[in-house]
Design brief:
alpha+beta, six-stranded antiparallel beta sheet, GGDEF_dom, Diguanylate cyclase, transferase
Length: about 900
């Protein structure tokens, strides 16, 4: 029976789709492993290494792998680890030779031998990497014949010292006909709006290398353009370019070519804000020169690394003779120069022990003490400082003859580093058949359709909960564990593999004994036996966590994170899906939620988010089950309505408009502008239908915008008065005092009206400050004062949304500036402060002193006037103070 099991096991290893190699460990006289001899390899390993079995068997690693790429020998390090630890390990490894990812397990099945299992996981790594690019594009490796790392930090640095709005890195693809944007640095808003406007993230996008662009790149670097149009003309639609220029206010573009020795690799493009020019471009040129030098240097370093790898398998002895009593050097051979870097003459005339690492001095002294006792020292390791200040680990074999210490040594730095890495590993796996992650198995189907499992490892039991004994009695138990929804597909895939003798790959769910659901990834290679018999050799593993991550990424890829509805990426793909006659008439409703910026400025982004969420909930409640809502911009949504007429779409828009107005956020009613269009046939493309709906929405938005904004200002003031009742009377008193002072200064009636309006609205920004701060009876903290001092800027942001209030917003912004320049928010002084702002400053301060605040008692009229007089020339315009006392004070009731 044992021979039968061994035969099955050997058959499994020979035909399994995973690569397998077993080494015999070669030891020296002291029992330490010094090399490894190839004992067994399977067919898959031959394909991986691209060499025949005869090339390896009986040969040593140090000999047989000299001609292989450096990366192909990295896994050999793990072989040494498994031998040293006596346990097994698993890790992922990238083969540059095959351009493939493998999951490797290194283990020892029997004394004096060590094995390695190669499992090709390239498709799954590639799939995961593709998904990860959707949420993280900040770090990329770019290959252009040599390895070039251009990370986000590098582009951020360039954007910082040039003052650019955005910096992009574009590299020519291998075909030379296209180029790709591989990295982008820009403010978050720019990135976000790129997604909104373009409908895709530019990073990773391929662009055609048009003759027009090639012609532009013939100019010497750097190439300066007035705007981005010459670079994207012919690549993006002109309408889209026009929108980009309008939305982003882009200006000068500076393009630096990345080329060396006649080879053009790509370009670094700097995009400036409108009306700004890039600064410190010389630094950019130095950066690019530095990067090109690093490319060449990296190539040399890789070559050096390969050479040192081969040297690591060789033994280079170092010779040393020193005095037993005072450790004076009598002889060193020339090999020490290569190891430590010092000239040999200098080494022989210095205190050689002074080069010992401070942490190794004590154990070195102990070793000398043993030598003085006449004992020999073998395999003693300490560290010596090199001429560069680094340390090399030296292994000594020493003995005493007379008054001299004779020693030979070798540089074992790489071995010591490997041992240190081994010591840091805290999780090791064991044998192939039992401890490899997942499970390996054999599955046989007979001509009559019956099947059985000749072999499976203990991992199979962990994944399915079925023991080997249970499996022998009833092989069908395995299939009973497959999730009912996945069972038909699994059985169909087995049948396809059976009929065509193709590799079986499947991803499915199994039900575990404790009631959980686990995702399993399986792969096996079929082997045709006797007529009608097929034997699969395969591997299965638990990919539950990877599957959860994939599903999470997939959800995020097609859903808006804030509102939960579909996003722009889904919308772009859905338009293609729905552009079929079965869905005609296909209606699109473009919905633009009004006042988002105003809400953000007045109440903060959290309230703005509430506005969008409330609007989204209204949309979702009113649409049909077959309709879809997608958020395609910051405040823009689209409703996709299959089999819907224009009249039906118009009725839904009207109903939604009324429902929005019936709801409010912080006292402001929710409103939106709508645009509808319908595709009835192929007369218009789906893109033209969308553009038509969007144009109609913009038309409605423009026609409603002015009255809506005026109404919003009134509602915000009403909200402020309801929130802080004293503010209404305060605004009226400040407006009246300002009117009197303006008239005393000889203002025209129009100027007086503007002054009174500004004074009435001067504290509108307080609507964004919490009542806990505004009504706090005690002394305000520093952070609370900072919050209070924000209100002029918030007032400015609110008022500036209405063009007619533009001049008023400038007056309100400066009403807390001081004559001496110590005010806020800008710290301007004297007549730099608008005259109307200086008037409101006096009126505002005077009224606050007369009426008091929760944190400050009211003053008497005389006390308040004394403060006004004392602050003339400091807080207030002295001329205005003089007019105030002559013309306004006499009218005040004492």
């Amino acid at each position: 029976m044992a021979d039968l099991d061994q035969t099955k096991f050997q058959s499994l290893l020979r035909h399994m789709p995973q690569g397998y190699v077993e080494f015999k460990v070669l030891y020296d006289e002291a029992g330490e492993p010094v090399d490894y001899e190839f004992h067994e390899v399977n067919e898959t390993f031959e394909r991986i290494m691209k060499a025949k079995r005869e090339h390896f068997l009986g040969g040593r690693i140090t000999d047989k792998l000299k001609d292989f790429e450096y990366s192909e020998r990295e896994w050999i390090v793990q072989v040494a680890r498994a031998v040293s630890s006596g346990e097994a390990i698993t890790f992922e490894h990238f083969s540059r030779r095959n351009k493939a990812w493998y999951e490797l397990s290194v283990f020892s099945e029997r004394p004096g031998h060590v094995s390695t299992l190669f499992h090709d996981i390239t498709p799954h790594v590639q799939e995961n990497n593709a998904l990860k690019q959707l949420v993280n594009v900040s770090h990329r490796f770019v290959t252009t014949g040599r390895e070039l790392l251009m990370n986000q930090h590098f582009l951020d640095q360039i954007r910082g010292f040039t003052g650019a709005k955005a910096v992009t890195l574009n590299l020519v693809d291998d075909d030379g006909q296209t180029y790709s944007t591989v990295a982008l640095s820009g403010i978050d808003e720019l990135l976000e709006r790129s997604l909104d406007v373009l409908g895709f993230h530019p990073v990773g996008r391929k662009w055609p290398m048009s003759p027009k662009r090639s012609k532009l790149l013939e100019a010497p670097s750097p190439i300066v353009f007035d705007d981005i149009f010459p670079l994207v003309d012919g690549v993006l639609p002109k309408r889209l370019i026009k929108n980009i220029l309008r939305i982003f206010n882009l200006g000068q573009v500076v393009l630096f070519k990345i080329e060396k020795d006649g080879v053009f690799y790509g370009d670094l493009t700097i995009v400036m804000q409108g009306n700004k020019e890039a600064s410190r471009l010389g630094l950019v040129e130095l950066y690019i020169v530095h990067i090109l030098e690093q490319m060449t240097k990296a190539g040399r370093q890789i070559g050096d690394a390969k050479e040192s790898m081969f040297e690591g398998f060789a033994t280079v002895d170092l010779e040393c003779i020193m005095s037993l009593t005072n450790h004076e050097i009598f002889h060193l051979n020339v090999a020490w120069e290569r190891v430590l870097g010092f000239p040999l003459e200098e080494l022989e005339n210095m205190d050689f022990t002074s080069l010992i690492h401070p942490d190794d001095v004590e154990k070195t002294n102990e070793a000398f003490a043993l030598l003085e006792e006449g004992k020999d020292i073998f395999r003693f390791v300490n560290r010596y400082r090199t001429i560069d200040g680094d340390y090399r680990s030296i292994e000594w074999h020493s003995k005493v003859q007379g008054n001299y210490i004779y020693a030979v040594a070798k540089d074992v730095t790489e071995r010591v580093q490997l041992e240190e890495e081994l010591a840091e590993r805290d999780r090791l796996l064991t044998k192939l058949s039992d401890q490899v992650p997942g499970a390996i198995y054999q599955f046989e189907r007979r001509p009559d359709g019956s099947f059985h499992f000749p072999f499976f490892s203990r991992g199979f039991e962990v994944l399915t909960g079925i023991t080997f004994e249970e499996m022998k009695q009833d092989p069908g138990l395995v299939f009973s564990k497959i999730h009912p929804e996945d069972y038909p597909n699994v059985m169909a895939s087995i049948e396809t593999s059976y009929e065509n003798l193709t590799i079986w790959d499947a991803e499915f769910r199994v039900l575990t004994p404790d009631g959980r659901t686990t995702w399993i990834l399986g792969s096996s290679r079929p082997e045709k036996l006797d007529e009608g018999h097929v034997l699969w050799h395969g591997y299965i593993g638990d990919v539950t966590e990877k599957k959860k991550y994939e599903m999470e990424i997939e959800y995020l890829s097609y859903h808006d994170q804030l509102t939960g509805v579909k996003n722009r990426r889904y919308f772009d793909e859905a338009l293609i899906t729905y552009d079929e006659p079965d869905y005609y008439p296909l209606a699109l409703i473009v919905v633009d939620v009004n006042g988002l910026k105003l809400t953000n400025d007045a109440f903060g982004h959290l309230v703005g988010d509430r506005l969008l969420i409330e609007a989204t909930m209204t949309l979702k409640r009113e649409i049909r089950g077959k309709d879809t809502v997608a958020r395609i911009g910051g405040d823009e949504f689209v409703i996709i309505m299959p089999n819907t007429s224009l009249e039906e779409a118009n009725r839904l828009s009207d109903r939604l408009s009324q429902l929005f107005l019936a709801k409010s956020i912080e006292g402001l009613p929710i409103s939106a502008s709508f645009g509808e269009a319908v595709k009835d046939d192929d007369a218009l493309s789906i893109a033209e239908v969308f553009n038509l709906a969007e144009d109609r929405m913009y038309h409605h938005k423009v026609s409603e915008k002015q009255s809506r904004r005026h109404h919003s200002i009134q509602l915000i003031m009403r909200t402020l008065y309801e929130k802080i009742p004293r503010e209404e009377a305060h605004s009226q008193r400040v407006a009246e005092l300002s009117r009197q002072l303006g008239q005393a200064m000889g203002f025209t009636s129009a100027d007086v009206n503007e002054l009174v309006t500004a004074a009435t609205l001067h504290d509108i920004g307080k609507v964004a400050i919490s009542n806990e701060i505004l009504d706090k009876p005690g002394t305000l903290t520093e952070s609370e004062w900072r919050e209070i001092k924000r209100h002029p800027e918030v007032s400015y942001n609110i008022l500036s949304t209405v063009p007619e209030y533009g001049p008023l917003s400038e007056i309100v912004l400066a009403h807390h500036e001081r004559w001496d320049g110590n005010g806020y928010p800008k710290g301007i002084s004297g007549k730099q402060i608008p005259l109307a702002s200086r008037i409101i400053s006096i009126a505002d301060t005077f009224d606050v002193m007369m009426t008091g605040r929760p944190y400050r008692k009211a003053k008497t009229l005389d006390e308040a006037l004394a403060v006004i007089a004392e602050e003339a020339g400091r807080q207030f315009d002295p001329e205005l103070v003089e007019v105030f006392f002559k013309k306004v004070v006499p009218t005040l009731q004492r």
